[in-house]
Description:
This is Protein translocase subunit SecY. The chain is mainly α.
Amino acid sequence: MKKFFTTLSNIWKIEDLRVRITNTLLFLLIYRVGSFIRLPGVSDAIASKGKAEGLLGLLNMFAGGSFSRVSIFALGVMPYISASIVMQLLGIAVPYFAKMQKEGESGRNKINQWTRYLTILITVVQAAAYLKSQVTPDEMLLANPLFTIMNTFVLTAGTLFVMWLGEKITDKGIGNGISLIIMVGIIAQLPGAFVAEFQNRTTGSGGLITFIVELVALIGVVMFTILIVQGTRKIAVQYAKRIVGNKQYGGVRQYIPLKVNAAGVMPIIFAQALMFIPATLQSFFPNASSNGILIMLANPNSWLHNLLFALLIIVFTYFYTAITVNAKQMAEDMKRNSGFIPGVKPGDATTSYIDDVISKITLPGSIFLAIIAIIPALVSLVGVNTLFARFFGGTSLIILVGVVLDTLQQIESHLLMRHYDGLMKTGRITGRTSIPAAAGTTPTAI
């Protein structure tokens, strides 16, 4: 405990770090206050009709409850995240954007602008769909087209303002702004889920002992997730000696850290998008709702849904790792800098070696990721309420673990740079597995 208070004292002594943490907390407070400001023209009765189940429940968690409250920040940063992913995929598939990514600072600025324009377009479409699905036109005010037009502008402005807050946190605060905003939204749901589960166990079945067992299990799942997020396979790289003047360069052994889960949370997001199709088909084709297989696929707690969900995550993990980790580029960069892997010839042999290592570590990484993704469904079967079950795994838990580790690593870097002890007595905190957004933007945790 003494070590903890000493560390807090050291953090407060560093003026730059103190200002950055204060700025971060202030910006996050602005975001949380805004999440309770309701859209103009929406009464309590209308807002209470909002639905946040299934995939919408996950989006509501990312938005800190703003989605179900029909807030001006209801869409949060998700349109920006979607635009960033689209731009990232375009940079891989379209030569024009791939060339732009290699143009240095000017290219990154261009792609950043493209991302913002695409964010506005996505936000307008999602805002119109959100108003139609969350706010039922029962009153005369809602039947007026001006209501939809006005609140579409408000929701778009809200998303752009949240995006601006995220950029300000990154520039003036500590950690990745967009990731922290998502993390705060998720954490905001934890107290309510905790209280609901406590009441469910103490007044219903299970009792206090069962609730304590659930907390211990949650801690175990968090530790397991940290292992997956932090797990790396190091490849030794030897650099040749070079004598320049009176100085010697190279001749040292370094390591290329390859993440066990290089794809991060993206495979879960892609798989969830596909698993949402059966529920959509049921809503559009009521006659097909009698199909037993379709019913099972649409039920997130069924064994068929979770089996297919896990298989899709494994497939998407391999797919996303293949397009984000370029073994050939790594081998070329190594050769250009006079580096080589001991016992492996430079060139194609090095590419094959790195690709083989990536393939071997991706399999256990994808299986572990699939297990984490289906844990919420498994704990729901034993009586855990849906909101609390979401913290046992899936996208929300991986984001929480990743963002916390990344922020702590940045704080520790500030401490070590000024010759203070780090946050841990032994070892050092390493950053998370970030999912890079579009070029020109900082990595995000989605």
